[in-house]
UniProtKB/TrEMBL annotation:
This is Cation:proton antiporter. Keywords: Antiport, Cell membrane, Ion transport, Membrane, Sodium, Sodium transport, Transmembrane, Transmembrane helix, Transport. It comes from the Bacteria. The chain crosses the membrane at residues 6-24, 31-50, 70-87, 99-123, 129-150, 171-192, 212-230, 237-255, 360-380, 386-407. InterPro entries: Cation/H_exchanger_CPA1, Cation/H_exchanger_TM. Residues 14-410 form the Cation/H+ exchanger transmembrane domain. Pfam families: Na_H_Exchanger (PF00999). It comes from Deinococcus rufus. It is a multi-pass membrane protein. Belongs to the monovalent cation:proton antiporter 1 (CPA1) transporter (TC 2.A.36) family. PANTHER family: NA(+)_H(+) ANTIPORTER NHAS2, SODIUM/HYDROGEN EXCHANGER. It is found in: Cell membrane.
Length: 422
C-alpha cells in the first residue's frame, strides 16, 4: 500500500469515528474516537481469528505503521507546543516551585514505586524480568496526558491557579518521563552489553542533564528566534509558517543534538506565548493565531487517539499480561496518590492547596499515547510483549473511565472556587 493510500485510509477512518461520536455518542472527542477505534479493533481481531482475508490485510496495514515514530517524530511536539502556548507563563512562573516539585519529584517517586512493585508482582507470577526493565515500565507509564483534562478544567471554570498547576505539571512531566525512559533504556542497553550511558551516578546525572537542560535551552533559543521573526512581520500566513517551522526545528535539532524534543517544544511554546502576550502587536491577529493552534491541537489529538486504538490489533495479548494489567490499574492509582501527596507535604506551608487540587491531579492523571509509544520502543522480547499489554489495559481504563468522570470532579472544583489557594 502506498503512503498516499495509507494516509487516506487512516484519515478517513478517523473522520468516520469522529463523525459517529459527534452525531451519536457525543463523548469528549478523544474518548469517543478511542472507544470507536477499540470497537473496530475488536471486530478486526474476531475476523482475524476467523481468517477473513480482508481483516488479515487490514492488520498488516496497521502493523506497518511505526506508532512510536508517529508520536515522537510527528505529533507530540506539536501537541506540547500548542498546550504550552495556552498556559499563562506569568502564573506558571509564580507556581514554579510546586510545578518543578510535581514534575521532578512526583515522576521520580512514581518510577521508583512502580518499578519496585512490578518487580515484586512479577516474582509472584514466576516471570523473570530484570529490575531495570521494571523501572523502564515505571518511566513509560508515569507521564500523564494533559489534553482532555485541561479542556474539562477550562469548561468547569476551576480556579486559574489549579488549572495552571495541573497544566504545568502535565506538560513538564511528559518531558521528564521521556528523558527518564531514555536514561533507563540506556542503562538497560549497557547492562545487556550494548551502548548506553556510564552506569555511574555521575554519568546518569550528566545524561539526564544533557537531555533535559539541553532540551529547555534549545527550545528557549529557537523560541526567541521565532519571536524576533514574528514581530518583524504582519502577515498571518508567514506567522503560521514561522511557528510550524519552529516546532519542526525543535524536533529535528533535538534528535541530532541528543536532547529532549518534548521539553524543547514546551520551552518554545511557553516563550512564544509569553512574549506575544506581552506585545500583542507582534502578531497580526492573536485571535486567528490562537484559533489555528487550537484547531491543530484538536485534529492531531483526535487522529492520535484513533491510531492508538487501532494499534491494539498488533499487540499479542496473553492471559497473564491481561491479569497483570488489571492489577496494575489500582496499583498505579495508589502510587499516583503517593507521588502527588509527598510533594504536597513539603510544599503546603508555603503553598496552601485549594480543595480538589490533589484529587484532580490524581484522578486527572490520565495515561495516553505517550505511554503506548514508549512501550513500542522497548527492545523485542518478553518484557516488551508484557509491557505493551499492561500499558494498553491501563491506558484504556484511564481514557474511558477516568476521562469520563474527571469532568464531574472538575465541575465540583469549579463550584468551590477558592481565591487564595493554588
Amino acid at each position: 500500500m502506498s503512503l498516499l493510500d495509507l494516509s487516506t485510509l487512516l484519515v478517513c477512518v478517523t473522520a468516520a469515528l469522529a463523525f459517529v461520536n459527534a452525531r451519536y455518542l457525543r463523548l469528549p472527542a478523544s474518548i469517543g474516537v478511542t472507544v470507536g477505534g477499540l470497537l473496530i479493533s475488536l471486530v478486526l481481531l474476531i475476523l482475524v481469528a476467523l481468517r477473513v482475508p480482508l481483516a488479515l490485510s487490514a492488520v498488516e496495514v496497521v502493523r506497518g505503521i511505526e506508532f512510536s515514530d508517529f508520536v515522537f517524530q510527528g505529533v507530540l511536539s506539536f501537541l506540547l507546543f500548542a498546550g504550552a502556548l495556552g498556559v499563562n507563563s506569568h502564573a506558571l512562573w509564580s507556581l514554579r516551585g510546586p510545578v518543578i516539585a510535581f514534575a521532578l519529584l512526583s515522576t521520580a517517586i512514581s518510577i521508583a514505586l512502580v518499578g519496585g512493585a512490578l518487580y515484586g508482582l512479577l516474582a509472584l507470577f514466576n516471570l523473570d524480568i530484570s529490575f531495570v526493565s521494571c523501572l523502564l515500565f515505571g518511566a513509560l507509564i508515569s507521564p500523564t496526558d494533559p489534553v482532555a483534562v485541561l479542556g474539562m478544567l477550562k469548561q468547569a471554570n476551576v480556579p486559574k491557579r489549579i488549572e495552571t498547576l495541573v497544566a504545568g505539571e502535565s506538560l513538564f512531566n511528559d518531558g521528564v518521563g521521556v528523558v527518564a525512559f531514555a536514561v533507563l533504556a540506556g542503562i538497560a542497553a549497557a547492562g545487556a552489553g550494548g551502548h548506553g550511558p556510564d552506569l555511574g551516578v555521575g554519568g546518569v546525572l550528566t545524561f539526564f542533564a544533557q537531555e533535559a537542560v539541553g532540551g529547555l535551552l534549545l527550545g528557549g533559543l529557537l523560541g526567541l528566534a521565532a519571536y524576533l521573526a514574528l514581530r518583524s512581520v504582519q502577515d498571518f500566513v508567514v506567522e503560521m509558517l514561522i511557528t510550524l517551522s519552529l516546532v519542526l526545528a525543535c524536533t529535528a535539532m533535538a534528535a541530532h543534538l541528543h536532547v529532549s524534543a518534548p521539553l524543547a517544544a514546551v520551552a518554545a511554546g511557553l516563550l512564544v506565548g509569553s512574549l506575544t502576550d506581552r506585545r500583542p502587536a507582534a502578531l497580526s491577529s492573536r485571535e486567528k493565531f490562537d484559533a489555528f493552534w487550537h484547531l491543530a491541537d484538536e485534529l492531531l489529538n483526535i487522529f492520535l487517539f484513533a491510531l492508538l486504538a487501532l494499534e491494539v490489533v498488533v499487540v499479542d495479548f496473553s492471559a497473564a499480561a491481561l491479569v497483570l494489567g488489571v492489577i496494575a490499574i489500582p496499583l498505579l492509582l495508589l502510587i499516583r496518590t503517593v507521588s502527588v501527596q509527598v510533594p504536597v507535604w513539603f510544599l503546603r506551608r508555603r503553598h496552601p492547596f485549594a480543595p480538589y487540587t490533589r484529587r484532580l491531579m490524581i484522578w486527572g492523571g490520565l495515561r495516553g499515547a505517550i505511554s503506548v509509544a514508549l512501550a513500542f520502543t522497548v527492545p523485542p522480547g518478553p518484557a516488551r510483549d508484557l509491557f505493551l499489554v499492561m500499558t494498553y489495559v491501563v491506558v484504556v481504563f484511564s481514557i474511558i473511565v477516568q476521562g469520563l468522570t474527571v469532568g464531574r470532579l472538575a465541575a465540583r472544583a469549579g463550584e468551590q472556587r477558592a481565591p487564595a489557594a493554588p
